[in-house]
Amino acid sequence: MADLDGNRNAKDFATGTPARVFTHSIKGASNLDWGMQNRLSRILDGETGRTVMLAFDHGYFQGPTSGLERLDLGIATLSPYADALMGTRGALRTSMPPATGAGLVLRASGGPSILKELSDEHTAMAMADAVRINASAVAVQVFVGGEHETRSVQNLTTLIDAGYEAGIPVLGVTAVGKELTRDSRYLGLATRIIAELGAQLVKTYYCDEGFDEVVAGCPVPVIMAGGKKLPELEALQMASNAVRAGAAGVDMGRNIFQSKSPVAMIQAVRAVVHDDADPETAYDLYRQLSTEKVAS
Ligand code: R5P
Predict the structure, then answer these.
(1) What is the number of the ligand 1 atom nearest to the C-alpha of 258?
(2) Residue 110 forms beta bridges with which residues?
(3) Which pLDDT does position 130 carry in this prediction?
(4) If you take atom 6 of ligand 1, which residue's CA is the nearest one?
(5) Mutation pick for ligand 1 pocket among 57, 65, 174 (CB with most ligand atoms within 8 Å)
(6) CATH node for 34-222
(7) Rounded to the nearest whole angstrom, what is the distance from the C-alpha of residue 213 to the centroid of ligand 1?
(8) pTM score > 0.70 for this model?
(9) Positions marked active-site
(10) Any idea what the Cα angle at residue 132 is, between residues 118 and 174, rounded to 5°?
(11) N-terminal to C-terminal alpha carbon distance within the chain
(12) What are the phi and psi torsion angles at 194 (to 5°)?
């Protein structure tokens, strides 16, 4: 029985004060269930509404990748600087510290390796396992215009239905095949389809012309994909262009973990994404932090 000694009567009901309405600043999220909004908040920073997501899910189709040879050594060191980690369940369970404070975005589609037709994917994990891992979201590749477009879209919608049951958001990733152009017309088409089918987040590539229209036409947050390794200043410039065009941050892999100084690079990316630092200032920070690392 509860100890009632010293129990005080409740009387501070602030009767003249209307109930507070907690509105959420995440695009398209205001009608989602509380749990789903809470999980989105683990990915997108509460103050800036943006994310620095660290992608290291490459192994699910390309095996060992330069910079990802030892996830336990490389990525585990970078994780404290990431708002969210995007990886496979195998990588998380074997090589990442469970005590991480970062949001967890689990790769949930897969199948073909780089030796085969990549659009031939299936869902590659059950939502129950995402719940066990305490995922903040699951990620699925969507091959709009690809050879297996319809099945890939079905992978997306299957996961979205399962995600609604579990309260777990889905990140739809626009996959760009060899034959598809990364222009605003294609990216606008793909991102809009993914959002209208119910994904709560979309990841897509940056394009020089019309990226602001891609973002504006997508009713959920658009997160910029990193892509192939660029010189650090160029990668920071691309990230800056994307967030200034309205992207809700970046999901970068190779441009961080293949950098000469990954810890310095992820901090420079944070400066661009969260502090609106211009690319040159962020690059100075990168160089300064790289030097400090060498000196220590
Ligand atoms: C791409 O869509 C996949 O999710 C990749 O495995 C990964 O996220 C790509 O990251 P990045 O292109 O920045 O190395």
Answers:
(1) 14
(2) 122
(3) 98
(4) 58
(5) 57
(6) 3.20.20.70
(7) 23
(8) yes
(9) 203
(10) 25
(11) 58
(12) -60, -45
Confidence of residue 7 (pLDDT cuts 50, 70, 90): confident
Structure tokens belonging to residue 155 = 């992978």
Q: Which amino acid is at 71?
A: L
CA atoms of 254 and 107, how far apart (whole Å): 17
Ligand 1 centre to CA of 55 (Å) is 6
Calpha distance 168→171 (Å, rounded): 10
104 in Cβ contact with 93 (< 8 Å): no
- Element of type H or E holding 10: none
Give the span between the Cα atoms of 158 and 151, in whole angstroms: 10
Residue 114 burial (CB count, 10 A): 9
Contacts of 260 (CB under 8 A, 6+ apart): 290
Instruction: Give 50-104 pLDDT, tens digit per residue.
Output: 999 999 999 999 999 999 999 999 899 999 999 999 999 999 999 999 999 999 9
Three-class SS of residue 109?
Answer: strand
Q: Is the CB of 253 under 6 A from ligand 1?
A: yes
Residue 244 sits at φ, ψ, to 5 deg, of -70, -20
Query: How remote is the CA of residue 173 from the centroid of ligand 1, in Å?
Result: 9
Q: Which of 68, 79, 71, 129 is nearest to 102 (CA)?
A: 79
d(CA 97, CA 79): 9
- What are residue 2's phi and psi, to 5 degrees? -65, 145
Residue 257 has pLDDT above 90, yes or no: yes
